[in-house]
Amino acid sequence: MRKIEKLSAIFIMMALIYTNLYAQDSDFIADSKIWSLKDCLKYGLKHHPKVIMADSDVKIQEAALLNTESSFDPKLSASMNLGNSKENRIGDNAANHSNHSQSESISISKKLYDSGKHSLQMKQSKEALESAKKDRETTLIDLAANIKTMFFKAQQAQSILQVKLETLEGYEKHLKKVESYVEVGTHPPYDITKAQVDVANARVDLISAKSTLKQALVNIANAIGMERPIFVASYQLEELPQIDESVKLDFVKIAQDRPEVKSSEARLRAAEYKIKEARTSLKPTVSTSAGYSWSRTHTPQDHGWNVGLGVSWTLYDGRTTKASIDSAKNSYKRTKASLDNLKLNIDMEVENCINDIIDSVQRVKANEILVKQSKESLELAESRYDAGLGSPLEITDARVDFEKAKGNLIKAYFDCLIAQAKLDNTLGRMPEEYSLDKAVEELNKREVKEKK
């Protein structure tokens, strides 16, 4: 029964928020579906242009690998030529002579040896493909973290709007109470003016909160690849993650193994193979060929066949090879420096995420106390005013403090959730809320294999 009452209250709150959101805003057109975090992740990780781009990059590298593999495949070609010539002669015995010619040929060729260049090119292509696959994983993880962050920010704005609605409602109730007090003469007319100013200020704050929520809904729609805003489900407060600095070293080890690092390592290996390939430029290449041909200007046709073995060896190419080797070496140095810089930043990223989570959890606990205290202060101020002992300013200050405490609590709570999403991203992990996509299943399989 309690669960039904709780769900009913959540539904009523969401209806109230969205009714207030686009009331008198006919230009705000959004998808009417209420999206959960899992819905957003499932849609975004399948339809977002970044995912499509990452998939295409993998396909491009697969095609490049196939092209490299085919360089040692036999090549078969055929040709046919038809000709006709006419000769006009002048003289007593003038005659026109026509010559018809026809030739056909078929040939096959195959590279036999290239001093190891093909093998090195194959290794480069495989590493490039591996790097593209890891980049795709990184794209999915980054996109999931961004979707989760934008979703929590939308829920945060939604919760802040609810606080503003409750504050306005409180001021309006207070205004009605003041009007009745002034009418019977127990309070001065100034109190009505003060209460009206408070209501007006609360409405201005509500307009600002509505604008913030509208922008947040646009942002989450953009994060999942939707062209129009969406409505998100309200958040049910749950126990926050508990974490301490003792896990930092473990987290750093996990982060050092994330797909982004694996991609950089694959690019580094490919750069090393590129240096070795550049050094083979002045080494020989051996190939063979065979063919059969027919030709005629008369009948019967002439025909013949040929078999050949060719050796190609560049003995000197100026400074082209040296330039290629120097370029490959510097590319390797740059790739290694980029990898080292990535690993260097991981320690800082992990520490910042842990500190953000710890800080936000502490702020949540502190603000929970402030909310309780400010609520008691507001109730006390209202009781004093009802008894004729308090002033309107005391009521306003108490309500402002209560609203501020609730807003800070909401901000701290969602800051903790966002920090957790950022930590998952830093560690190279997909969100727990999403486990149905094929790409995520592949990530899970990879993690199991690496643990073994």
Give structural notes.
- This protein is of the alpha+beta class and 452 residues long.
- Helix content is 67%, strand content 14%.
- It has a 4-stranded antiparallel β-sheet, with no helix packed on it. It has a two-stranded parallel sheet with strand order 1-4.
- Strand 5 (285-296) and strand 6 form a beta hairpin.
- Helix 4 (117-184) packs antiparallel against helix 7 (259-278).
- Residues 1-12 and 435-440 have low confidence and may be disordered.
From the N-terminal CA to the C-terminal CA, the straight-line distance is 47 Å
Report the radius of gyration as a whole number of Å. Answer: 37 Å
Strand order of the largest sheet: 2-3-5-6
- Low-confidence stretches are 1-12, 435-440
**Helix residue percentage:** 55-70%
Structural class: alpha+beta
The quaternary organization reads as: single chain
Summarize model confidence as the mean pLDDT. 82
Q: In DSSP terms, counting alpha (H) and pi (I) runs of 4 or more, how many helices?
A: 10
Q: Which overall shape is indicated by the principal axes computed on the Cα atoms?
A: elongated
The topology string of helices and strands comes to HEHHEEHHEHHEEHHH
The tally of beta strands, per DSSP, is 6
Q: How would you characterize the largest beta sheet? A: 4 strands, antiparallel
Strand content: 5-15%
